[in-house]
Amino acid sequence: MNKSPILLFCILAACSVWSVHGKSQEMNIDDEEPAEVELPVEAKPPGLCWGCKWALNKVKKAMTQKETYEKVKARLIKICNKIGFLKSRCHKFVITHLDELVEELSTTDDVKTICVNVKACNSPACF
C-alpha cells in the first residue's frame, strides 16, 4: 500500500508534462492506436483578465479629469505593487502595454472594454 502515493504522483507528473507541452494522448476504445489531441497554446495566463480589470479599475477611480500622461503611467506602474501574487505578471503586462493602457484610460471606455482591447481578456461575453 505504500506504493499507491508514489504511483499517483508519477501519473500526475506524467499528465502535467503532457499538458505543459500542449499535447495529450486520447485513446479510442475501438482503435488500438492513440490519437494526438492539440490543446490551445495561445490561452491567456490565469489571472491576467482579472488582474487587468482590478488594476485599471483602481487607476481609473483615482484619476482626475485632466490627468497627465506621466501621472497615469506612474499610477499604472505603482498599482502592480498592490496586487499580491500577480505582482510580477502585472508589472510585465503594464510595461509591455503602457502606452496603449494610458491612451485607453483617457477614453470613456469601461475597464472591461479596455482589457479586451489590450487582449488581456477574451471578449465582453466572458464577463
From TrEMBL:
Signal peptide: 1-22
Sorted UniProt keywords: Disulfide bond, Signal
Gene3D superfamilies named among the record's database cross-references: Saposin-like
Source superkingdom: Eukaryota
Domain (Saposin B-type) ranges: 45-125
Alphabetical GO biological process terms: defense response to bacterium
Name the UniProt record assigns to this protein: NK-lysin tandem duplicate 4
Native organism: Cynoglossus semilaevis (Tongue sole)
